[in-house]
Every structure is written in structure tokens, then in C-alpha cells.
Amino acid sequence: MEQFMTALLIWITANSAYPMPHTLPVVEYRTSDALVQMRFCAEERCTSEELEKLPAISVIALFDHEKLTMYLDKSIDYTQGEHRGSLVHELVHYLQARAEKFGRYCIGLLEAEAYDLEDRWRVENGFPKIRRNPAVMMMTDCGPGPT
What is the pTM of this model? Predict the structure, then answer.
């Protein structure tokens, strides 16, 4: 995993203005359900009503800017392009957090840059570009939220 993440960081830093970090992000593994809750529920806890309203999606990876920690699905498969693309995206967030770029939680700006680099990596490696959520991309305020 360390070699794979290092290789992706080398690609990201070669294709951006970010310097190569001396350390890798802390990585913690969670179930897909736990990642969905972390993404959509306050403080990683949902009421039963909130759980019923969560979208039926899977979350492969998340990055916590405060803890400099990447959370990965326990069943992540590094041979799949979709999963590799998600790692590129979250590693961009790691570099953003280290550089304190766009403040702490300028969600739209953070996501736009991460998606742009992920899409460049995907195209270069023969995978389709990611479908972006226009609502997220339009957010330029700096309110709290996970990425």
C-alpha cells in the first residue's frame, strides 16, 4: 500500500504545484456503511431516521483534513481503476490539507481541484472521467464538511 500511495503521490506532484510530502497520510480502514455515515452524518453518528434517508451509494474513501487521515473501505481493490481514481482524489485532499490551500473547508474549491487531477489521472490511465456533482462544484464558501 505504501509503495502504491507513493507512486500516486509522485504522479500528483508531477502534475501539480504541490511538493512531494515526506510522509504518507495516516490510513484507517472502515466498512462501506461506516464511510457513508462518516460522509453524510454529523460526528459519524446518525439517528435511525437519518440512516433511512442516506443515499444508497458506496463510499470508497474519505479524507479528514483536521486529522490528516484517509479512511478507506476495507474491501478496496487497488486493481480497479475506479478505486485507484478515488485514491488519487483523496491524496490530492491530503496535499491540500498539508499546504493549507483554500482554507480548511472551501468544499467547492477543494473538490474542483481534486476532481480535475483525478480526471487527468483517469484519462492518462485509460479510465473514464468521474461524474461530478454540480451542486458540490458550485460551492465556493468555506463551511464545514468532509471531502
Answer: 0.83
